[in-house]
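<discrete_fold_record>
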Amino acid sequence: MKGKVILAGGVLGLVAPILVQLGNPPNMGVCIACFLRDITGALGLHRAATVQYLRPEILGLVLGAFFSALATREFRAMGGSSTLTRFTLAFLAMIGMLIFLGCPVRTVLRLAGGDLNALVGLVGLVAGVAVGVWFLNRGFSLGRAVPQSKVSGYIFPLGIIILLLPLFVKTPFILFSQQGPGSMHAPVLISLAAGLVVGILSQRSRLCMVGGIRDFVLFRDPHLLYGFLAVLVMALAGNLLLGHFKLGFAGQPIAHTDGLWNFLGMALAGWAAVLLGGCPLRQLVAAGEGNTDCAVTVLGFMAGAAVAHNFGLAAGPQGVPVAGQVAVVIGLVAVFALAFFNTARLALTQGVKSNAQGS
């Protein structure tokens, strides 16, 4: 299994600089948060004209996981555990990621490109996951998913298949950026193929950035971290070979140098993600496997992206707006409340059961 994780991480790390070379935004060969944000814009859910594109990498990733799960008989329609809480946590995680300007995958890819601001973000991510693990150790739970009808599991992959059509047949109601990061993309078929391969490998290996940190903190199990390191090593090698490596804090592409908010943004994202059970990459893969809770989580990410850009919360190369700073603080308070009350609720339930058994 360790070999599968290393292979999945290595392929992801290698694919990212190649996609940059072919046209994707620099230091953003693959970014789940940024690409979901672009898809949200393409659907007209936000009007930031520079970040609107139906990213084939995301569509391919879900379909790769879907086909892999079907082929290996691992497709399971499951869900129904704390749906609204999951949506809210995902919403808040996306706010944090758009303050940092990247998901856990892009954190590693930015670091592999020499962006030292990503090192600050990585420290924030680890801190957020560690706080989330503290709550897990005290009984935090969103409840258990239960079997759903197979139709429910097919809805999300079917929606992804439908979204493929506007990539090849232009429609007036799908928006495509004419400038900015949204206008920068590799050829559609290459991006789609890259997504399919990464989706298949991620489904087979259970690759997850947040899960790797969580398992190491909880159990001292480095298994998933090998994938994390493989992404870093292969992306670094690719960037050096292709001339994309630039070491430093200043002048990094699609990044800002405000260390405090880089840290807090990723702390918020990591905390929320560990309570959700995985990073955005893992959520997309699991949604492709039929998990409707994870499909709702992806919708929560997209809702967070829509609000972040419609209300001026998202950061940019110039820095983090005051509204975004306020949103992060509110987000941290909200995640604490959700973590606390879902932990307290479980403790109370267990206490009632113990009392009933003793009487």
Observations:
- The CA atoms of residues 64 and 123 lie 31 Å apart.
- The chain has one domain: 2-350.
- Residues 322-358 form the longest helix (37 residues).
